[in-house]
Amino acid sequence: MLSAMKQKGEKITVLTAYDYSMARILDSAGIDVIIVGDSASGVMAGYENSLPVTLDEMIGYASSVARGAKRALVVADMPFGSYQGNSRQALDSAVRIMKETGAAAVKAEGGREIAESVTRILNAGIPVMGHLGLTPQSIHKFGTYAVRAQDEAEAEKLLEDAHLLEELGCFGIVLEKIPAALGAKAAQELKIPIIGIGAGRHVDGQVLVLHDMLGLNPDFSPRFLRRYLNLSEEITGAVKQYIRDVQTCDFPNDNEQY
Ligand code: KIV
User: Fold this and answer.
1) Cys bridge to 63: 45, 101, 169, 231, which one at CB 3.0-4.6 A?
2) Which atom of ligand 1 is nearest to the CA of 208?
3) Ligand 1 center to residue 242 CA distance, Å?
4) Distance from Cα 8 to the centre of ligand 1, integer Å
5) How many C-beta neighbours within 10 Å does residue 243 have?
């Protein structure tokens, strides 16, 4: 379905979600793909980065999302430590995700380094989405969340990795925080869809972290983020109003009681 969209030049719409209620809303709004990202580590669990979230936690988030999404493709992130050890471990983790969540695919970060694991997971009949560019699970290797692949060597490696993931059989690749020209080149060279987050507009689709685009995380404002709501402010206003209403005995009124 996604590669057909690419062939027809239809942009693919992707958002993250981590729970049933949000997944239902995104699904009925018409989103094509929901990624249960390991960004859950920060936005759901409050950890500083995406490293601490566990496979068990990701399975909990992904199964909630899968119950809420009747139409959209649900892709579950493989968390840090669940696939880097060896390909057997990677397969076991991917099998758990598929058996216990109802997601239709998994996503893993990296190129050549994880090729053996990707192959083994694909050989088990599990669709895999790649993730290159800024790969937050490697934050301690990079030391920064700055734009990736700005120099020629890294850009070349990224394209090589993208081609490799395509050859192995991945059905799509997320490219995060890279120069727009490189995103465009990858989308042009590859047959599988390239989904960008901070990779410019000339890719095959876009993904944003739901909490960021809804304005639930006001402290996070990278250049690539478009904020569609300021939900943090709206919720604060609603909660303050509720507190006032309860304190002044305005709530509940005659119509709100039995
Ligand atoms: O963890 C995440 O939310 C992601 C998305 C940016 C795709 O990987």
Assistant:
1) 101
2) 6
3) 34
4) 25
5) 11
* CB within 8 Å of 97: residues ≥ 6 apart: 55, 58, 59, 62, 76, 78, 103, 106
In 3D space, the residue among 190, 188, 191, 222 whose CA is nearest the CA of residue 202 turns out to be 188
Ligand 1 pocket, residue 207 CB under 6 Å: yes
CA angle 190, 192, 193 (to 5 degrees): 105
CB 242 within 8 A of CB 231: no
Q: How far apart are CA 237 and CA 101, in angstroms?
A: 35
Residue ranges of the chain with per-residue pLDDT less than 70:
none
Go through the domains of the chain in sequence order and give each one's CATH number.
2-227 (3.20.20.60), 230-258 (no CATH)
Q: How far apart are CA 34 and CA 75, in angstroms?
A: 6
256 is catalytic: no
Per annotation, catalytic residue among 176, 189, 233, 234: 176
Atom 1 (ligand 1): residue with closest C-alpha? 37
